[in-house]
Amino acid sequence: MMDSPLILLPVFTLGGVPITSSVLVTWAIMALLGGFCALATRRLTLVPSRRQAVLELVVGTIDAQIRDTMQADPAPYRALIGTIFLFVLVANWSSLVPGIKPPTAHLETDAALALIVFAATIVLGIRARGLGGYLRTFAEPSWVMIPLNIVEQITRTFALIVRLFGNVMSGVFVIGVVLSLAGLLVPIPLMALDLLTGAVQAYIFAVLASVFIGAAVGGDGPDRPPPQPGNSP
Amino acid sequence: MNSIEIASIVAAAFAVSFGALGPALAEGRAVAAALDAIARQPEAAGTLSRTLFVGLAMIETTAIYCLVVALLLLFANPFVK
Questions:
Q1: Is the entire prediction scored with pTM above 0.90?
Q2: Is A137 a member of any domain?
Q3: Is residue A194 part of a domain?
Q4: Radius of gyration of chain A from Cα atoms?
Q5: ipTM for the predicted complex
Q6: Domains in chain A, number
Q7: Over the stretch A138-196, which tens digit does the pLDDT of each residue have?
Q8: Count H helices, E strands: chain B?
Q9: Chain B: nearest CA to A184, how far in angstroms?
Q10: Mutation for testing the A interface, residue in B1, B60, B66, B77 having most A CBs under 10 Å
Q11: Which of A32, A46, A124, A182 is the most exposed place for a label (fewest CB within 10 A)?
Q12: What burial letters (b/e) apply to A86-115, b meaning 16+ CB within 10 Å?
């Protein structure tokens, strides 16, 4: 019998708080990403070096995606959505390191990420429209839709959790099953597929986060500027 | 292994197999429609593929729900002590 993917056993306790392996991996990813970004952006110049050009390419791509999705200036959302994307991507790909299970393969990490998106939707929506204006979006297009809109807020956050969890966990699970049946080197194609799934899921998570935030913030209606051409994902 | 466990395993297999049918058909139709649209308007490929990805993720969620139900039946079954 394989370990249940729904249960997570603590590795050790820190002052009475149980610390699980996925929390440890999350801390490692945070330190890695934060340290790398701090080191890489220490000496920025106007004429970019080779390393800085790569970083600018990443930031520019994320900016273009946010601008395409939200039809708005990406500057206020770049930090949140870019961080979510990079974290989920690195977390999904952390299964490449032997012995490490990606933290996104556990329900808790995905729930935390989705709750961050949920809170950001509310906070940014209230900041952009005011409390009354934000609450009024629930009554669109008519007041009959109020219960449905409230339910939608909850179910889409839940779907965000379950989608990321199900995809990443099933990848890890399938590799485990094939490894126990067929042995060494056989699951390598599945691991390649897992890399693709991980990248696509990170992209989808970030796009959905920007769609939700854009819906809460935007609402310019049909007189939005047209999307800029040539920004393919 | 009692009858409840056997029923849970069979139900989990049915949940995943039949739960994968609908989303698979739907995703096939979505991809076909998107390819058709890209063939008609290649300049809109960026917007189309982004919308396609998001839509596929939405469709796929139903299959993932079935997977989660199957996992609950296998690993966190409330009727098995």
A1: no
A2: yes
A3: yes
A4: 20
A5: 0.72
A6: 1
A7: 887 788 888 988 998 898 898 889 889 988 888 888 888 888 888 788 888 888 988 98
A8: 2, 0
A9: 26
A10: B60
A11: A46
A12: bbbbbbbbbbeeeebbbbbbbbbbbbebbe
